[in-house]
C-alpha cells in the first residue's frame, strides 16, 4: 500500500508486567519524512511501546522492524546504533556528572550537541556544570540536543513538552519540523491535542494496549482521535457531559474559608494575597515556575514561608508540618501521584492512611468502620478497582482518584488541587472536574491550579493569575477566557480591568 | 579581557567546583595535618618510629577504605571486605611461610588474583541473586570468613623478611616508611587510571542515577561487577599489607576492617548514596582513625575508646552531612 | 510467534497453574516456607534416622527463640525500609551489663540489660528519625560505639566477674511440663503481639506505609519521626531481651556473645519474605525463617563438619534461599 518503505514498524507488540497487561497488540508504522503522533489515554501503553522499541524492556510478543528487518534491541544504546533514539519523559542525564561527562558517558559528540543546543536557543551553556545544578527545562533541551546529535532516523519524543514553558515548546515544534524535512521520522507523544493536530502528519491511537486506529491529518479531526482514544460509547458520554456548575450568589460579608495575606517564600513567592470562600472553586493560572508550586506547598504545610499569614476561618495558622494544615481542614492533592501514594499497598490502606496521623489511632483498627468509609469513597469516585488490590496496578487517572478519595474519606474544608489532571486522559479529566464542582457545591472551598489554561473556565468560579510570584490579576470566570489568562500569565497588562 | 585573567578565574572556579564535588579533597589533608599537630602537641617526642608505626597501622585500613570506596561510589556497599582481606592475609602467610623473597612476589600476585576473584564472585552474587548489596555481602562475608578458617585454622604462617620489609621498612630516610610508599603506589596505580577511564565515569554514573546511566548506554551490571572486582583487588592488597605488618596470617584479623573501612569512607566524605566522593578522603581518613587510639595511649586513656570514637565519628559526620543536605534542599 | 496474543495467554495460564511451588511462594509465602521447613526436618530424619523426636523439637524451639526475638526487632525495622546492625552489640551489652549487676537482684539486673536496649534504640531512632541518617550507617556507628564502650567497661569491671543469675539461666536453658522450653514464655507472647500489631493496628499500618513511601506519609499528615523513633526503641529492647535469653543459655557473659546473631537476624527476616526495601512482609514469615535457620544449624552440627566449613555452608544456603526468594517473588 505505502509508497515509501517504512522506517520503523511495530507489529502486534505485547508486554505484561506481572499480572498487568500493558500492551496486547500494539502496532505502529512510521514512514520516512513524517511526524507521527502517538496518542492514547493513560495506561493505554504509549510509554511502554516507546520503551520496547528502544530496548528498555524486552517485548513478550510481536516484532519490531527497522527498515524492513526484524530487530530486537537489548538496550537503548543498541537501538541508538540502529538510528532510533528516544527522549524519555524524565531526562536521561546523570546528576553527579558534568554535561561533558554525560556526553562522554553516552558517547555523544560534544560539538554536535553544542550546535544543536544553540539551534534550540541555548547558546551559552557551561558544559562543565554539574547536571544536578541545572533547571529541568534546560535538561530536557540538553537531552533533546544529545538525541539530535546522533542524527537518528527515528526520533521518539515522549511528552517532551509536558512541563516546558510555551516559548521552549515552540522551539521544539520548529525542530521537529526541521527533522521531518530531512527525511527522518519523529514519533511525538503528547496529551495536548492542539499540539498533535498542528504538528503531526499521522497519528496512531492506542487504547488498552491495542492499536485502535490511525488517522491522517487530512481526515484526522480532533474528534476522531478523541473517539478512538475513548472508544465509541464513552466519547458520546463525554460530549454530552453536563456542566454541573450552579451559579451562586455570594454574600459580600461572608467569611472566607481561606485567606492568604502577603505571603512571601523567597525566591519563588514574593507577594501573594487572595481570599477563598466556601462553596467556591478558585483557579490559579500561571506559566511554569511562577511560584504556584511553592504557594501550594506553603498552604499545605510542607514548606515554611518567610512572611505573611495564612488564615483559615478567621484563625491564623501555624503551619510546621502537613499535619497542621490537615488539622485545620486543608488538604492537598499534589500533581505527582507517586509522591502521595503507597504503590505496594492495597487501595483501602491508601485511602485510610490519614486517619493514623493521630497517636490515638495507633491502636487496634476498627476494621468494619474503615471498610465502610473506604467503600463509600471508592464508590463516589467510581474508581476502577478491577485491576487488583495493589495500588500500582491502577492506571494514572485512577491513582489520582485514590488521592482525592483519601481526603473525601477523612473529611476537609479546603481542597488544594495542584494540576490534578496532569497526564490524565480526557474521560477521567472530566470526571475529576465534575467531582471538584460537586465538592464545592457541598460547601467546601477548592483552590485549583492547572497547567492547561482552557481548563480554568471549565471548573472554576474565579481565577487568580500569578506571575513572578505575585498576583497580577484576579477575575471572575466569565472574563477568564484563554486569551486573557494567557496575556496576564505572561505578565502583560490585563486588557480588561485590573483588580485593586 | 586578558587570557591569563580568564584562565585564573577558570582555575578558581574549577577549584571551587571540584571542592564542592569532593569536599574530602580539601578538608581531609587539613584534618590530617591538624590531627598530626595534635599528636605532636600531646606527645612532643613524636619520632620517626611513631610515624612508621602509624603508617603500618593505617596501611590495611587504608586499603579496606579504598576497596569500600569503589563500591560505594558505584552505589553499592561491600560488607565482605574484612573477610576478603582475611582470606588474602592467610593465603599469603601460609603460602609464603617457607618461600624465598623471589618466590614471594609471584605468590603475592597470585593472592591479588585470588582477591579479584573473590570480588568477582561477590559481584556475581549481588547481580545474579538480586539480593540487595547489604544482605548479599554480609552473607558472602560470612562465607569468606569460613574460607579463611579453612586455609589457616589458627594464627600462624609467615613470609620472608624481605617481603615483610616492604611494609615495615623505610625508604631513603627513616621518616619515609615503606608502608606509606606502598600505599601511595598501589592506590595511584589502580585508582588513577580507573578514575580517568570510561569505566570510572560509568562507576560514578551508576552510583548517581542508575536509570539515567542505563539510558545513556551504560551496562549497569557489567559496571557493578567491575566495582566489586576492584573492591576485591584492593582487599587483597590490604590482606598482603596485613601480612607484611603483622608478619603472620590470622583468620579473624580481617573482621575489624569491614566496619572501620566503612567508617573511613564516611569520614572521607564519600556519599553513601553513591556517585559522589573520591579516593583521597577515605585513605587519609584511615590515617586519622588510626591516630585516634595512638593519641589515646599518649593521653593515658584506654585505647579501646578508639572504637567508641570511631562509632561516634561515623554517626556525627553522617548527621552533619544529612543536615547540610537538608539545608541545601530547603533553599 | 505468529500469534503473540496466544503466547501471552498461555504464559498467563502457566503462571497461574504451573510451577506450583513458585506460585505458592508468591501467593502464600508462609505455606511455602513451612513446606521448606518440613522438608529440612524430613531430610534430617532421613539422613540420621531417629534424630527427630520430642527432645529434638523442643531443643529447636529453645534455640530458635532468641533468634526469633532479635529478628522480631529486625522485622519491624526492615518493614520501614531500614536495617539495624547494632542488634548483636546491644544483645551482648545487655547480657553483660545484666550479669555484672546480678548482685543487685535479678529484677534490677534485667532492667539494666533492657536499659541498654532502650538507650541504644533511642540513639538509633533519634539519628534515623530526627536527623535522617541512613539506618545502615547509624546502626553501624552505634554498634561500634556500644561494642567499644562494653570493652572499656569490661576492663574497668575486672574486679566483679559477671555472673548469670539462676532465673536467667532457667529462662534461657530450662524447660517445663516435660519439654516446653522456658524461653517460649517470652517468645510466644512477643510473636502474638507483634503479629497483631502489624496486621490490625494503626501503628502496624504506618510501619508498612513508611516503608513504602515515607514522603507520602508526611503529605498525609503523619509525623513519621514518632513512628520511627518508637520503632527503633522497640527493636533495641527486643535485642536486649534476646541477649538475656542467649546468656541464660550459654551461662557465661562474654564480649562476643551475640555476634553470631547479626547475620541470622537479617537472614531470617529476608527468608521470611520481608522486603529489605520496606513496605512488604510480616512477622509470621520471620518466625518460620528463624526456625529454618535453626534447623539448618542443627543439620550442620549433626554432620559434624568443622566450624569453618559450617560457616561456608551456612552462608551459602542463606544466599541460595534469599536469592531464590528474591528472584521468585519479584
Shape of chain B: globular
User: What helical percentage do the residues of chain B reach?
Assistant: over 70%
CATH H level of the largest domain in chain A: which superfamily? Answer: P-loop containing nucleotide triphosphate hydrolases
The Rg value of chain B, from CA coordinates, equals: 20 Å
* Adjacency order of strands in the biggest sheet of chain A: 6-7-8-3-9-10
CATH topology of chain B: ABC transporter involved in vitamin B12 uptake, BtuC
Which band does the percent of strand residues of chain B land in? under 5%
Question: Structural class of the helices, strands and pairings of chain A?
Answer: alpha/beta
In total, the number of domains of chain B comes to 1
Count of discrete structural domains of chain A: 2
Strand order of the largest sheet of chain B: 1-2
Kindly report the average pLDDT value of chain B: 85
At CATH level 2, the architecture of chain B is Orthogonal Bundle
Q: What layout of secondary structure does this protein have?
A:
The complex is a heterotrimer of chains A (500), B (331) and C (330).
Chain A: E1 8-17, E2 20-30, E3 35-39, H1 46-53, E4 61-66, E5 69-71, H2 76-81, E6 84-87, H3 99-106, H4 110-119, H5 136-149, E7 154-158, H6 166-181, E8 185-189, H7 193-199, E9 202-207, E10 210-216, H8 222-230, H9 232-239, E11 258-265, E12 269-276, E13 281-285, H10 292-300, E14 307-312, E15 315-316, H11 322-327, E16 330-333, H12 337-340, H13 347-352, H14 367-381, H15 396-410, E17 414-418, H16 426-441, E18 445-449, H17 455-459, E19 462-467, E20 470-476, H18 482-489
Parallel strand pairs in A: 3-8, 3-9, 6-7, 7-8, 13-18, 13-19, 16-17, 17-18
Antiparallel strand pairs in A: 1-2, 1-4, 4-5, 9-10, 11-12, 11-14, 14-15, 19-20
Helix pairs in contact in A: 4-5, 8-9, 14-15
Chain B: H1 3-21, H2 24-42, H3 48-73, H4 81-96, H5 101-129, H6 133-151, H7 161-168, E1 170-171, E2 173-177, H8 178-196, H9 198-208, H10 210-215, H11 220-246, H12 255-267, H13 280-298, H14 305-330
Antiparallel strand pairs in B: 1-2
Helix pairs in contact in B: 2-13, 3-8, 3-9, 3-11, 3-12, 3-13, 4-5, 4-6, 4-11, 4-12, 5-6, 5-11, 7-8, 7-11, 8-9, 8-11, 9-11, 12-13, 12-14, 13-14
Chain C: H1 4-17, H2 20-27, H3 29-47, H4 54-79, H5 87-100, H6 106-130, H7 135-156, H8 166-173, E1 175-176, E2 180-181, H9 184-200, H10 202-212, H11 214-219, H12 224-250, H13 262-271, H14 283-302, H15 307-329
Antiparallel strand pairs in C: 1-2
Helix pairs in contact in C: 2-3, 3-14, 4-9, 4-10, 4-12, 4-13, 4-14, 5-6, 5-7, 5-12, 6-7, 6-12, 8-12, 9-10, 10-12, 13-14, 14-15
Amino acid at each position: 500500500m505505502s509508497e515509501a518503505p517504512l522506517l520503523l514498524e511495530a507489529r502486534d507488540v505485547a508486554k505484561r508486567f506481572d499480572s498487568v497487561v500493558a500492551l496486547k497488540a500494539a502496532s505502529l508504522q512510521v514512514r520516512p519524512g513524517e511526524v507521527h503522533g502517538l496518542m492514547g489515554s493513560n495506561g493505554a501503553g504509549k510509554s511502554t511501546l516507546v520503551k520496547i522499541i528502544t530496548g528498555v524492556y524486552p517485548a513478550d510478543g510481536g516484532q519490531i522492524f527497522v527498515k524492513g528487518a526484524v530487530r530486537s534491541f537489548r538496550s537503548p544504546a543498541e537501538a541508538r546504533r540502529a538510528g532510533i533514539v528516544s527522549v524519555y519523559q524524565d531526562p536521561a542525564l546523570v546528576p553527579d556528572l558534568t554535561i561533558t561527562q554525560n556526553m562522554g558517558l553516552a558517547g555523544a559528540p560534544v560539538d554536535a550537541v553544542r550546535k544543536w543546543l544553540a539551534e534550540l536557543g541555548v547558546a551559552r551553556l557551561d558544559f562543565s556544570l554539574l547536571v544536578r545544578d541545572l533547571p529541568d527545562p534546560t535538561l530536557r533541551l540538553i537531552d533533546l540536543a544529545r538525541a539530535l546529535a546522533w542524527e537518528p532516523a527515528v526520533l521518539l519524543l515522549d511528552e517532551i513538552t509536558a512541563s516546558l514553558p510555551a516559548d521552549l515548546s515552540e522551539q521544539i515544534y520548529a525542530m521537529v519540523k526541521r527533522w521531518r524535512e530531512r527525511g527522518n521520522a519523529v514519533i511525538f507523544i503528547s496529551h495536548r491535542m492542539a499540539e498533535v493536530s498542528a504538528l503531526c502528519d499521522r497519528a496512531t491511537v492506542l487504547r488498552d494496549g491495542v492499536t485502535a486506529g490511525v488517522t491522517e491529518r487530512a481526515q484526522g479531526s480532533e474528534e476522531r482521535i478523541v473517539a478512538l482514544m475513548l472508544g465509541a460509547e464513552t466519547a458520546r458520554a463525554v460530549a454530552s457531559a453536563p456542566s454541573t456548575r450552579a451559579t451562586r450568589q455570594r454574600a459580600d460579608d461572608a467569611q472566607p474559608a481561606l485567606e492568604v495575606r502577603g505571603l512571601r517564600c523567597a525566591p519563588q513567592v514574593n507577594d501573594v494575597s487572595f481570599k477563598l470562600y466556601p462553596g467556591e472553586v478558585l483557579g490559579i493560572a500561571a506559566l511554569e515556575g511562577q511560584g504556584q508550586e511553592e504557594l501550594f506547598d506553603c498552604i499545605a504545610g510542607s514548606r515554611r514561608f518567610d512572611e505573611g499569614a495564612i488564615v483559615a476561618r478567621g484563625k491564623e495558622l501555624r503551619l510546621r508540618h502537613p499535619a497542621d494544615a490537615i488539622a485545620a481542614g486543608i488538604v492537598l492533592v499534589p500533581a505527582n501521584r507517586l509522591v502521595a501514594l503507597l504503590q505496594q499497598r492495597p487501595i483501602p490502606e491508601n485511602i485510610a492512611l490519614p486517619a493514623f496521623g493521630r497517636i490515638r489511632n495507633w491502636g487496634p483498627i476498627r476494621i468494619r468502620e474503615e471498610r465502610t468509609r473506604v467503600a463509600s469513597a471508592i464508590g463516589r469516585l467510581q474508581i476502577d478497582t478491577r485491576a487488583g488490590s495493589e495500588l500500582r496496578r491502577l492506571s494514572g487517572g485512577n491513582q489520582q482518584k485514590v488521592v482525592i478519595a483519601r481526603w473525601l474519606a477523612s473529611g476537609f474544608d479546603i481542597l488544594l488541587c495542584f494540576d490534578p489532571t496532569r497526564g490524565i486522559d480526557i474521560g477521567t479529566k472530566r470526571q475529576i472536574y465534575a467531582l471538584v464542582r460537586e465538592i464545592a457545591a457541598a460547601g467546601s472551598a477548592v483552590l485549583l491550579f492547572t497547567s492547561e489554561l482552557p481548563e480554568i473556565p471549565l471548573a472554576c468560579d474565579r481565577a487568580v493569575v500569578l506571575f513572578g510570584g505575585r498576583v497580577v490579576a484576579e477575575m471572575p470566570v466569565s472574563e477568564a477566557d484563554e486569551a486573557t489568562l494567557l496575556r496576564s500569565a505572561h505578565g502583560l497588562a490585563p486588557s480588561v480591568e485590573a483588580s485593586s | 579581557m586578558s587570557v591569563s585573567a580568564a584562565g585564573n578565574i577558570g582555575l578558581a572556579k574549577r577549584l571551587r567546583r571540584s571542592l564542592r564535588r569532593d569536599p574530602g579533597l580539601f578538608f581531609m589533608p587539613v584534618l590530617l595535618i591538624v590531627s598530626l599537630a595534635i599528636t605532636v602537641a600531646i606527645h612532643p617526642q613524636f619520632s620517626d618510629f611513631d610515624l612508621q608505626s602509624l603508617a603500618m597501622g593505617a596501611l590495611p585500613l587504608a586499603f579496606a577504605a579504598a576497596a569500600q570506596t569503589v563500591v560505594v561510589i558505584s552505589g553499592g556497599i561491600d560488607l565482605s571486605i574484612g573477610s576478603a582481606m582475611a582470606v588474602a592475609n592467610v593465603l599469603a602467610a601460609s603460602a609464603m611461610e617457607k618461600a624465598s623473597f623471589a618466590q614471594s612476589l609471584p605468590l603475592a600476585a597470585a593472592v591479588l588474583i585470588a582477591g579479584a576473584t573473590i570480588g568477582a564472585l561477590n559481584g556475581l552474587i549481588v547481580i545474579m541473586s538480586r539480593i540487595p548489596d547489604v544482605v548479599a555481602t554480609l552473607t558472602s562475608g560470612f562465607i569468606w570468613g569460613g574460607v579463611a578458617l579453612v586455609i589457616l585454622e589458627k594464627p600462624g604462617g609467615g613470609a620472608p623478611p624481605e617481603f615483610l620489609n616492604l611494609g615495615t621498612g623505610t625508604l631513603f630516610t627513616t621518616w619515609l616508611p615503606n608502608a606509606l610508599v606502598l600505599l601511595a603506589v598501589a592506590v595511584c596505580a589502580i585508582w588513577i587510571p580507573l578514575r580517568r577511564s570510561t569505566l570510572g565515569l560509568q562507576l560514578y554514573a551508576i552510583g548517581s542515577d542508575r536509570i539515567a546511566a542505563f539510558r545513556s548506554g551504560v551496562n549497569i551490571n557489567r559496571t557493578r561487577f567491575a566495582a566489586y572486582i576492584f573492591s576485591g583487588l584492593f582487599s587483597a592488597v590490604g590482606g598482603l599489607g596485613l601480612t607484611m605488618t603483622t608478619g603472620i596470617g590470622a583468620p579473624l584479623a580481617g573482621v575489624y576492617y569491614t566496619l572501620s573501612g566503612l567508617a573511613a569512607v564516611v569520614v572521607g566524605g564519600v556519599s553513601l548514596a553513591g556517585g559522589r566522593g573520591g579516593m583521597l578522603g577515605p585513605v587519609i581518613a584511615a590515617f586519622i582513625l588510626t591516630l585516634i587510639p595512638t593519641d589515646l595511649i599518649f593521653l593515658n586513656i584506654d585505647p579501646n575508646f578508639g572504637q567508641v570514637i570511631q562509632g561516634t565519628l561515623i554517626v556525627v559526620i553522617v548527621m552533619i552531612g544529612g543536615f547540610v543536605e537538608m539545608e541545601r534542599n530547603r533553599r | 510467534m505468529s500469534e503473540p496474543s496466544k503466547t501471552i495467554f498461555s504464559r498467563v495460564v502457566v503462571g497461574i497453574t504451573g510451577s506450583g511451588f513458585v506460585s505458592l511462594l508468591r501467593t502464600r509465602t508462609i505455606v511455602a516456607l513451612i513446606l521448606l521447613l518440613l522438608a529440612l526436618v524430613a531430610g534430617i530424619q532421613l539422613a540420621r534416622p531417629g534424630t527427630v523426636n520430642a527432645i529434638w523439637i523442643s531443643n529447636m524451639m529453645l534455640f530458635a527463640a532468641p533468634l526469633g526475638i532479635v529478628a522480631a526487632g529486625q522485622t519491624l525495622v526492615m518493614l520501614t525500609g531500614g536495617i539495624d546492625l547494632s542488634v548483636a552489640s546491644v544483645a551482648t551489652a545487655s547480657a553483660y551489663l545484666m550479669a555484672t549487676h546480678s548482685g543487685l537482684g535479678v529484677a534490677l539486673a534485667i532492667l539494666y540489660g533492657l536499659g541498654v536496649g532502650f538507650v541504644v534504640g533511642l540513639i538509633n531512632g533519634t539519628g534515623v528519625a530526627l536527623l535522617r541518617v541512613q539506618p545502615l550507617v547509624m546502626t553501624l556507628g552505634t554498634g561500634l560505639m556500644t561494642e567499644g564502650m562494653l570493652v572499656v567497661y569490661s576492663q574497668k569491671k575486672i574486679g566483679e566477674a559477671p555472673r548469670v543469675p539462676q532465673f536467667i539461666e532457667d529462662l534461657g536453658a530450662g524447660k517445663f511440663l516435660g519439654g516446653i522450653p522456658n524461653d517460649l514464655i517470652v517468645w510466644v507472647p512477643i510473636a502474638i503481639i507483634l503479629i497483631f500489631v502489624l496486621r490490625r493496628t494503626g501503628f502496624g499500618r504506618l510501619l508498612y506505609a513508611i516503608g513504602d513511601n515515607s514522603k507520602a506519609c508526611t503529605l498525609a499528615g503523619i509525623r513519621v519521626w514518632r513512628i520511627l523513633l518508637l520503632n527503633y526503641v522497640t527493636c533495641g529492647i527486643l535485642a536486649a531481651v534476646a541477649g538475656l535469653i542467649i546468656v541464660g543459655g550459654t551461662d557465661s557473659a562474654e564480649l562476643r556473645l551475640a555476634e553470631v546473631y547479626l547475620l541470622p537476624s537479617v537472614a531470617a527476616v529476608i527468608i521470611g519474605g520481608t522486603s529489605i526495601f520496606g513496605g512488604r512482609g510480616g512477622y509470621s514469615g520471620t518466625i518460620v525463617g528463624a526456625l529454618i535457620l535453626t534447623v539448618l544449624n542443627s543439620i550442620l552440627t549433626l554432620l559434624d563438619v568443622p566450624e569453618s566449613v559450617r560457616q561456608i555452608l551456612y552462608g551459602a544456603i542463606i544466599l541460595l534461599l534469599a536469592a531464590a526468594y528474591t528472584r521468585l517473588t519479584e
